User: Fold this.
Amino acid sequence: MKDIEIARQATLKPIQDLAAEKLGLSPDEVILYGRWKGKLDLRAMQDRLQGPEGKLVLVTAISPSPPGEGKTTTTVGLGDGLSRLGRRAMICLREPSLGPSFGLKGGAAGGGYSQVVPMDDINLHFNGDFHAISAANNLLAAMIENHLHWGNDLNLDPRQIPWRRCLDLNDRSLRNVVTGLGGGRDFPRETGFDIAVASEVMAIFCLATDLEDLKARLGRIIIGRDRAKKRNVLASDLKAHGAMTALLRDALNPNLVQTLEHTPALVHGGPFANIAHGCNSLVATKTALRLADIVVTEAGFGADLGAEKFFDIKCRLGGLTPNAAVVVATIRALKYHGGLSLDELKHENPAAVEEGFANLKRHLENIAKFGVPTVVALNAFAADTPAETERLFSLCQDFGVRCILATHWAEGGRGAEKLAEAVLQVINETGESQFQPLYPLDLSLTEKIRTVAREIYRADDIELSSEAATRLATLEKTKVNHFPVCIAKTPYSFSSDPERRGAVTGFTLPIREVRVSAGAGFVVALTGDVMTMPGLPKRPAAEHIDVDASGQIIGLS
Assistant:
């Protein structure tokens, strides 16, 4: 049965009833978006959000493979498993972007019997947050162009305006564009579009702690340089941050939905982990930690990207202390990283599992550097054989990590109960969180990039382009030198080459460009040929998405 068919057969609870029953919230604290979706009213919940925090569990994964690992599905299954064990659990996820929904994935709300619902609403538009983020981003772009048109009182250098427009779709033709054509007082200027989930407004939205912090961060966005005073010009200089905040005011309230088994889920924010910091909103996570005993969240792509940024950026800036991590692996992904082709994955091959274990082992070693105890979740598939599964169990045992067979895709929370028990056990064994970031903030920006490259990716060193080297040298003399770094890299390899699978060594990480996200509070280093505006594949998922005669959306998977 397809995911969307399973989702539509579910009996959902009215979202106000779920909020009251599971979270003890009053009707005044939930803003309804229909019967099955709502937003938590943060202003109405201020007193409730002052209590002790629950435990925080991160779900991450090995390096992605074409068949997929099921990280979101495992996050949902684990939350349901914890609920079945009697724990007051909540799930925190990112909102799906329309780019992947119409591109490769066709949906991102979990799968099988471990989904958040209503699935089609969550995957398409949801409660309008991404539209608000795009509008705020593009309002700033319009105000910059308008300022240039009316005399440029801030003396902006038109050649050094880094701000780009965005939209939440994959469209490679918009990566680089020219504006100002058509004559008149305006003049042509090169700029471009990013996908909304790679925009600084998205990053700011996901790292802001409240409305005032959101406004202050938006005001710190760098829109260009003053030619005479040789200083940065900010969005606050343009007086744009107030109107941007107005567009984002309602969006900042976290979205409340439910799993198929009625575990509460906050689905909010959605930066990509390969080109941004890849975590749901800090507001949602901190709210959930006040409402639940244990919160399960995820970070995008493999642990080298999502988990590292979760630890070094989100946890550091948000004051979070994660208590455990779950690394999702599949037999077929391990065989893929063991060197097999996609056609060969269907055949039993324990030796390839062992070869691909090097990728999983490296991710486990990396997470240990943050002081976070880890459990491996083997996301089961029907094609897995006992010999392959036993080989993985043996390898994990020899490494000293628990590996739990999880059947949540087919069985929902019941199939994740053993995984939930293992997570609770490692939390109890560890006691107080021993979490620590990978690097101190007083390192230079170059050394922070080098530390991540060497310690997480296992590169021999980094190689800076002349442009990146000059930019970093300039930034070291400014206040942003104390920012953490956010490395934009292919998710498919530890290196910058997506074709190099497994646990690659003997490479240098090329840094081609450096960007400052002053409002978000980090510096972005772009590697290889990673793009901030993806393109659609040859056969996009959009070709199969439709609406039937009854008005139901079909084709989401």
In short: Residues 445-527 form a domain with the Formyltetrahydrofolate synthetase; domain 3 fold (CATH 3.10.410.10).
